[in-house]
Amino acid sequence: MLALLAAAPSVASSEEGGEEGASAASAEEDGEEGVEEGGEKEYTVVTGLDFAMWWQGDLRLAGPGLALGFVMIPDGLEMTFSFGAMLGSHVYSVPIELTFAIPIRLTRWLNMYVDFGPALMLDKADGELLHDWAVSVGAGFEALPPGFDWGIYAEGDFNLRVMRKLDHQGGFSIGFRYRF
Question: Which among 21, 70, 72, 66 is positioned nearest to 176, based on CA atoms?
Answer without folding.
Answer: 66
